[in-house]
Specification:
By secondary structure, the protein is mainly alpha-helical. It has 13 helices and no strands. It has helices at residues 8-17, 22-42, 44-49, 57-69, 75-94, 125-130, 136-145, 151-154, 170-190, 209-223, 229-243, 249-256, 263-273. Helix 2 (22-42) packs across helix 5. The mean pLDDT is 91.
Length: 274
């Protein structure tokens, strides 16, 4: 195993001995790789000799502060990363590989209250599409979800190749024409006709879901409602059910591409929305 951070082999062996799921081990590895990569570029203590045992609380706080300010992670993500770092440093301390527990005095963030699902946003779609304070990718996300598409599907390669938009309302087709001015140079650079593309050089030009969230989160200050694609989709489904109260379960399932077992759940959400 190549070492992405100090003592990785021993740490992973310890996690696996405790029957930690492989997906969780991968999350630990991703956190610690990112942490050490950040230290490599921005932390003078680590840059001197790459010794993890010299890190103290301010060094970890510097990284965590960056997560909040530059990456704008939510409190839940912040707490998970802090937990990963805490487990790692406790492991090092237990083996006498560091004399410090730099995470000991760092407190987790309070859980943020979930915003209520906004089910009105599809009714205001024309206004949101025209709002140029929102990033192009934010408005495109709203548009596609308003047609019932799950965003994970929209991010897949060749999604646009099978997308038919000629029967969409004129305002939506005009938005797509305007959006093409933005995305066209990216498509030419990457020789790719998809819509969600990275804005910097990359071997895979397709935007990932975490990458899309980096555009959506700042725009929540403008919309004042959650732009999480899963929450937006719930809002769209509730909106649809409220506008089609007499439609049969079968027709709703067909129209919204729902699993049959989920229709009752969304009907209850729609009823509570009243």
């Amino acid at each position: 195993m190549s070492q992405d951070y100090p003592y990785q082999t021993a740490f992973v062996r310890d996690l696996e001995a405790r029957d930690i799921a492989q997906a969780t081990v991968a999350e630990y590895n991703a956190t610690l790789k990112d942490f050490c990569n950040y230290l490599e570029h921005f932390n003078a203590t680590y840059q001197r000799d790459h010794r993890i045992n010299q890190l103290q609380t301010p060094d970890v706080e510097q990284y965590l502060s960056m997560l909040l300010t530059a990456r704008q992670v939510q409190n839940q993500t912040y707490n998970k990363i802090l937990s990963h770092l805490n487990v790692y440093f406790k492991f090092l301390f237990s083996h006498n590989w560091t004399p410090y527990l730099p995470t000991l005095d760092i407190k987790s963030k309070p859980q943020q209250a979930a915003r209520p699902i906004n089910y009105h946003w599809p009714d205001q779609l024309t206004d949101w599409l025209a709002n140029d304070r929102l990033h192009w990718y934010t408005r495109l996300t709203l548009l596609l979800i308003s047609h019932g598409y799950a965003i994970q599907t929209c991010l897949k390669p060749d999604f646009t190749a099978n997308l038919t938009t000629h029967d969409w309302p004129a305002t939506e087709r005009q938005f797509l024409a305007d959006f093409q001015v933005f995305v066209g140079p990216l498509q030419d650079r990457f020789q790719c006709r998809d819509w969600f593309l990275k804005q910097r050089h990359a071997n895979d030009p397709h935007l990932t879901l975490p990458g899309l969230h980096k555009y959506l989160r700042p725009d929540e200050a403008i919309t004042d409602f959650s732009l999480s694609p899963s929450v937006l989709l719930q809002g769209y489904l509730i909106n649809y059910l409220r506008h089609h109260p007499q439609q049969s379960d079968h027709d709703v399932i067909q129209a919204l591409h729902l699993e049959p077992g989920s229709i009752d759940y969304y009907r209850r959400l729609a009823q509570r929305a009243d």
